Amino acid sequence: MFTIKRASLLFWTFLFLIVLLQLSLSTSPDFGFGVAFIHAVVLVLTLRVHVYFLNLLIKKYIYTHNTADFVFSALSISLLTSVLLTAESYFLTIMMLSTTVLHDNDIISLFCGMLLVSILISGMSYSIELYKQNIASAKRHQELRNNVLEMEIDHLRTQLSPHFTFNILNNLQFLIRKDQDEALELLSRYSKILRYYVYESQNKWIKLDDEVSFLKHYFELEKDRSGEDLEISCQWDIPENTLVIIPFLLSTFVENAFKHVSSFTERKNYIKLHVFLKDENQLVLNIKNSAEQHSQSIKKEGVGLKYVKKRLELSYSDNHELELTQDTDSYSVQLLLNLTSV
What we know:
Blueprint: H1 4-24, H2 33-64, H3 67-96, H4 104-178, H5 180-200, E1 206-207, H6 208-225, E2 230-237, E3 243-245, H7 251-260, E4 269-278, E5 282-290, H8 303-315, E6 320-326, E7 330-338, E8 340-341
Parallel strand pairs: 2-4
Antiparallel strand pairs: 1-3, 3-8, 4-5, 5-7, 6-7
Helix pairs in contact: 1-2, 2-3, 2-4, 3-4, 4-5, 4-8, 5-6, 6-7
């Protein structure tokens, strides 16, 4: 992975090689590779110290945003570094090449060249440090956003829990009044569902097979609660898999279908459910139910449907498609989820 540290190391290596090459190609016949190497090491180390103090100044500027002080201080550091680089070049040349004498014009040219190099290095350091600060800020922002999403998802779970429990108790009350023996049998099945709900609702992800198993039980219980005049069909095509899903996402659509199915006796009312996997990791849920003919206008969404939409947005922002279709005598839901494996 190409990181800032690696980029910085490559930059200083490249700069060292450029300085070494420039000195090695000097017109002076006495300026050999050994002299050039020592000279290049001293210059690059001095520039590295220059960048260190400049970065301290840049970090201070990022928090204070005092542009005038920053420009003045940066230019002062660059001038000081240029003087130091010029002095180092002069004394190294005199000491290592004793026959060479630098004239005033040579010293001025050397100083101007070092000043340009210092300013160029300062500009590049500023750009790199600003880039690092932007990356760190973006990372902190993303972490904060993820924490907020986690808190919001946890809040939605607490909202769904009493809503689900209320519907379970309401269904159980209906069954007790209808048939006590049947109610006792179904109470056992309800207890399994509630036990599963209590434990699995604490998990962020659960196995798809467990969610589908829960949905089958829930569908059967809703089916038993409904009248005989309701035609119900379900189809499950879920092969063995290692996929995971957020808990209790699908049951809301089943509940919504049974809750809003048409009550007209003049025609056959129905609920059709098909859950299957496509392309190994895409879960598809299709559910369609008969609806009242006068319900063409869009009804206000219930609590369950509102929360399940929110959960989809938070957990599957770019990995889901939800299509709700309301016709004159039917209501259908198609949900596509791109799931991941454990």
